[in-house]
Amino acid sequence: xxxxAPQILALGGGGFSMEKDSPLLDxxxxxxxxxxxxRVCFLPTASGDADHYVVxxxxxxxxxxxxxxxxxxxxxxxxxxxxxxxxTHLLSQDLIYVxxxxxxxxxxxxxxxxxxxxxxxxxxxxxxxxxxxxxxLCWFGQALSAFHGGPRAIRGLGLLPYSNxxxxxxxxxxxxxxxxFVAEQECPGFAAEDGVALHFEGVExxxxxxxxxxxxxxxxxxxxAGGVRETRLAAxxxxxxxxxxxxxxxxxxxxxxRRAAPxxxxxxxxxxxxxxxxxxxx
Length: 282
Prior knowledge:
With 282 residues, the protein is an alpha/beta fold. It has helices at residues 24-31, 51-61, 86-90, 103-113, 115-125, 134-137, 172-185, 238-242, 266-281, and strands at 7-11, 39-43, 66-69, 95-98, 128-132, 140-145, 152-155, 160-165, 189-192, 196-201, 204-210, 216-222, 228-234, 236-237.
């Protein structure tokens, strides 16, 4: 059973579903478990539990991990009797990997099945939570989704009391809308490019990592005079760190660089504190 601080690895985009020839972000996620053969469970809810997505997960993880998945849209909910007790299965994992897709539909399904509460318990226990796109947006208090139509704000699980935007370099409309959202809602947060991941311990951003040499993330805050301030957070290039032999990032054991969290405006302090207390009490 994990006995670590809560950890979330939020990918702006990437991992096995987007980077066929690069295992770097997935290897980094596995390294956070501290296990030789971690138990990894895949939640493909945002894709409607697409069969091809599940197959790609097993191709990537089954050789080095005890891999399983949970389906909410199939009669057979998973492998190895997972359907008998979803909560017990998820809470026995070392890593829970959430796939991309429609974050609005995913959150609705999770809440209907009680998985939102289970995932909060998993986070508090130190089970690593990670995922790209929808699998990143879901952990935050507020996020910007653009799965259908134009970008729009959605309410996430609130484990991380910030806002979040993914695919920051790939979709200019999403970037512009995120700036507008932060300025109007006074909800500071983090944005990540494809191939870049935000590593949180508790609610603190401790490191930004990338599968690309030029990848970056951003801290986005509202200016007092209006508009937003966007601060580039340079990412640690995992390939540069591990070398040409492709050794997993866990081998380096380098101390993560602490990154400053965005400072909420005074009007947001009370609500953010309340959100954290609500998560702790759930």
